[in-house]
Amino acid sequence: xxxxxxxxxxxxxxxxxxxxxxxxxxxxxxxxxxxxxxxxxxxxxxxxxxxxxxxxxxxxxxxxxxxxxxxxxxxxxxxxxxxxxxxxxxxxxxxxxxxxxxxxxxxxxxxxxxxxxxxxxxxxxxxxxxxxxxxxxxxxxxxxxxxxxxxxxxxxxxxxxxxxxxxxxxxxxxxxxxxxxxxxxxxxxxxxxxxxxxxxxxxxxxxxxxxxxxxxxxxxxxxxxxxxxxxxxxxxxxxxxxxxx
Length: 245
Description:
The chain has twelve helices and four strands; from the N terminus they run αββαααααββαααααα.
């Protein structure tokens, strides 16, 4: 198993070469060769294995991912601000290097509004580094791009849209599992005993219902809706492409 520094360094270098159009073939111990698409998933799992130890609280995992984003961002900051690379190539670097690190395991997250805002602020920070400043023709001064201008230039679903789409896709997989699968039993099961005093913590299923309400589903029994794969797939795509002001 590689150490953390070796994993992140190798991830940065190989992602950069892959986004530049170089075909990367890696030879395994058994003599077989794999392209970068295969290797990237193994490398991300290898990086996360250093921190994944048994059961981790969802809140702590989200905080750790939010903290790790900065380390990943600064590892490629010079590439994102380089004048030798095109903006399209910088966007590809962002999607290949930074997003997989930030969004690892996001399909199981229970996000609050504050955490969603922190993720949006981080993505806007990266996009401003990529697209740079804009010259004001009236005042003749350079200014930062507004959020709406950033999203228009980015022309891809933002980070929250990605999380909600992946969360709905995973919810569909879990709801279609057999009743003897552990993931399904956790989804439909109920805990015993009394809950502690204070406001109840937001549940993952509540996030699923909120995501469905955003794309126009007003029903209550979403688990039965999941059994229709085509209809559920349409909701997943709608969650990805939804434009929220």
